[in-house]
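Final report, Chapter 2: Outcomes

The project's central promise was a pipeline that accepts a single protein chain and returns its three-dimensional structure in a standardized token representation, suitable for archiving and comparison. That pipeline is now operational. To close this chapter, we reproduce one record exactly as it appears in the project archive, with the input sequence first and the structure output second.
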Amino acid sequence: MLLYIRLLKESLSFALNALRNNKLRTLLSLLGVTIGIFSIIAVLAAVDSMKKNIESSISGMDKNTIYLFKYSFGPTDVEQWKRDQFPQVKYEEYQYLKRNLSGVDQMSYNMFTRNESIKYGDNIVTSIRVKPSTNEFFDIEPFTIEKGRLFNESESNSGVPVIVIGSDVAEGLFETNDPIGKQIRLYGQRFKVIGVLKKQGQDTFGDSNDIAVFFPVNFLRKMYGDNNKSFTPAILIKPEKGIDIEELKAELTQKLRSYRGLKPDDINNFFINVLSGFTDFIENITGQMNVAGWVLSGFSLLVGGFGIANIMFVSVKERTNLIGIQKALGAKNKFILFQFLFEAVILSLFGGIIGMFLVWLIAIVLTYAVDFDFVLSFTNVLIGSGLAIFIGLIAGIIPAISASRLDPVEAIRTGM
């Protein structure tokens, strides 16, 4: 054990001398390893951070939540021209499914629409996310109320002009004043503020309830009807716990096809999107990103490996005389082999540490600059360190073997 500690100490000393005495040559040789490790760890960290933020964004929602509407979350075999002809889901279909579909915990009818401006007195807040829905939506997506209340079933069914606003909207319109009971203007109509949501922050997709408002979807239906192209209606379904999601999808498909009068040979003119399917789609994309990152970064690592090998061959040549003396004094081939192999690993590890340090710096900057939780995990640090050690071993093995096989007499004569 003491022998290997001594070997490691001497190898570290030789590696540091190589860095000091041949700064430019060593820097250029380590650049490939640094760039390769940086690229791979940056991709892995970015993908891990994105997955973590996505999981955090939907953590409060049941992953079996179904989005029923005319669009698909992921790739589909249905041609674009056919999808363009699909009808929008109707409020009457929501009522029919709510009465007849089994295994459902909650079901809501929502409309997705463009952002709007909202006004109170002389104060205007622009680019507000408008989220009209039925009252069941508050039991599907997690909400935390800070002041007031959410609208109830009676208000939802009758479409009264009541509104729940996000914390940033409340601050922009009312500053430090209490918003509850105040009248604000949206779509040229007056809405009574009945609730303010607790501050949430922005999720991975840039969405946030802090800059959103919620009001009964029937109010919008009374104003614009059901065929306005500015609105995309959707039915959200939260299944009961323990329900077989495939059986629920099959029953949902059968009932909606029957309601719409589709023939047996007609394709479904709607899409049943399960939230877990969306996360699977995201994982597939991130997996492809990981593969692409490994392939592209592999070239840098290959160049870095050749750079380390070049340093080691030069080092063997410069220290041929010293190797001969060590062997003459009784140093075994194994001692010489490990000495150069450790040196190659240490040099490669230097390059890897520099690459991971750069990733760490960028992670800190991005976290504060773009409000995105960019994390360099301990697992990724281990992967980076392991890769650097592996590259050092591969690049240093041939120079180390050649050094260990030198004839001591010829080695000493070479240095004279």
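Archive annotation: The chain has a mean pLDDT of 82.
This record, like all others produced under the grant, will remain available to the consortium after the project formally closes.
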